[in-house]
Amino acid sequence: MMRTLFAAAASAALLWGCQSVETTKEGAVGVDRQQRMMVSSEEVDASSKKAYSQMMAEAQKKGVLDRDPATVQRVQNITKRLIPTTTVFRPDAAKWPWEVHVISIDEANAWCMPGGKMAVYTGLIQKLNLTDDELAAVMGHEIAHALREHARERVSRQMGTQMAVGIAGALFGIGNLGQGLGNMVADVTLNLPNSRLHETEADRIGVELAARAGYDPRAAVTLWEKMAKGAGAGGGPPKWLSTHPSHEDRLKDLREYAAKVMPLYQASASKGGASAGK
Ligand SMILES: [Zn+2]
To answer: For residue 262, is pLDDT > 90?
Structure first.
């Protein structure tokens, strides 16, 4: 009796809170998948913005925020070219409060939180000696995660589990196992590995963004080759790479999609790159 009641209550709660959405248009690469969300973009973006300013304030306090003006300029220039291309996937992204900072951390990483709040670590640029095309490939990939609202989707999944726990908790007096939304968003963006599905979507959208911005989309391939060779602490691959799609599959997919968007790159490059995506 108790079990039936619990199951009914849990599924009702999941149904009430859940909504299927398509966060982006398909683009030339044709990413098309319905996503189940339990929290609004507005809530996620607001929490993300708050978590981001706290992190940047902390970075400032520790003296690791935007220390090298030349690198900051370089990263900002690439960002400025990539952002106008995002409207192909979602017109609203033009009005996002985009922001990027360079953090002096000796780790090959970069990320984009929901709503366009980005960070690039110096370790990424230095350890891999990245070209602008390769840096644009990383940033395009991270921006794609934000456009697809993968963090919102992942948080939604966590909330689904927690809500079931919450009802059980209320029934059995266990208490609330909830966690602040801002922490959850930061955690899924910075720490937890993405699913293979999310990675593939970000790879495909990423090459299109880069191509439209006038960056050679084939650089995504050389980037991942470099990454596998020597971004880790001991010179080997970084530990998060092993959680990503299997390396060979990823390279194969990137080659295929980079070839698909080559005409966009050529069209954009012939216009001078910076005006791409308008
Ligand atoms: Zn990713």
So the answer is: yes
How far is the C-alpha of 64 from the C-alpha of 68, rounded, in Å?
10
For residue 185, the CA-to-ligand 1 centroid distance in Å is 15
In angstroms, the CA 149 to CA 113 distance is: 9
Q: What's the CA-to-centroid distance between 153 and ligand 1, angstroms?
A: 14
Count of CB atoms situated within 10 Å of the CB of 241: 18
What is the number of alpha carbons within 13 Å of residue 136 lying toward its C-beta? Answer: 26
Residue for token pair 């809500």:
163
Q: What is the pLDDT of residue 273?
A: 58
Mean residue pLDDT of the chain comes to 84
Q: What are the CA-CA distances from residue 116 to residues 31, 41, 55, 170, 263 (Å)?
A: 20, 12, 15, 37, 27
If you ran DSSP here, which 8-state letter would residue 189 be given? I
Angle (CA) 125-184-191 rounded to 5° is: 30
For residue 231, the 8-state DSSP code is: -
| List 142, 149, 199, 201, catalytic entry | 142
Closest residue by Cα to residue 41 from 150, 120, 118, 123: 150
CA of residue 4 to ligand 1 center, whole Å: 40
Contact yes or no for 122/65 (Cβ under 8 A): no
Tokens of 87: 């409207």
Token pair, residue 153, equals 């989707």
- The two beta strands, 117-121 and 99-103, are parallel
pTM, full prediction: 0.84
